[in-house]
Design brief:
Layout: E1 3-7, E2 10-13, E3 18-25, E4 33-39, E5 46-52, E6 57-59, E7 67-71, E8 77-82, E9 91-98, E10 102-104, E11 108-113
Parallel strand pairs: 2-11
Antiparallel strand pairs: 1-3, 3-8, 4-5, 4-9, 5-6, 7-8, 9-10, 9-11
C-alpha cells in the first residue's frame, strides 16, 4: 500500500532552523509531484513547496528565500530545510504526493516559539 511518512518535526526558537523529511513507500514508479503543505492553528491547509520528479520547484511567497525543498533523483523522498523560522510558520506539516491520485502523510508538528 502506498504511503507517505513524515519525520523531523519539533519545537524550535524563532530565527532557528529545522529540517523535516518525508519518505514514500509502496510505489513502483516515481511520484510525479511531491511537496509540503501546512495547516496553521485555526486556519486552512496551505501550500508550502512542491518539487517534481525532474526537479522543478515551487514555493509559497511566504517561505521563499527561507525554505528549500529537495528530492534525491529517482527516489520518492523529500526534505524541507527551513531557516529563519517565524512564529507564523507554526503548524502541522503534511507531506503530499501526486501521481494519478493524491496521497497525504499523517503530518508532523512544527512549533516556532518566540
Amino acid at each position: 500500500q502506498a504511503q507517505l511518512v513524515e519525520s523531523g518535526g519539533g519545537l524550535v526558537q524563532a530565527g532557528g532552523s529545522l529540517t523535516i523529511s518525508c519518505q514514500g513507500s509502496g510505489w513502483i514508479l516515481e511520484i510525479d509531484v511531491m511537496g509540503w503543505y501546512r495547516q496553521p492553528p485555526g486556519k486552512q491547509r496551505e501550500l508550502v513547496a512542491t518539487i517534481t520528479y525532474d526537479g522543478k520547484v515551487k514555493y509559497a511567497e511566504s517561505v521563499k528565500g527561507r525554505f528549500t525543498i529537495s528530492r534525491e533523483k529517482g527516489k520518492n523522498a523529500i526534505d524541507l530545510q527551513m531557516s529563519s523560522l517565524k512564529r507564523e510558520d507554526t503548524g502541522v506539516y503534511y507531506c503530499y504526493g501526486s501521481t494519478y491520485a493524491e496521497y497525504w502523510g499523517q503530518g508532523t508538528q512544527v512549533t516556532v516559539s518566540s
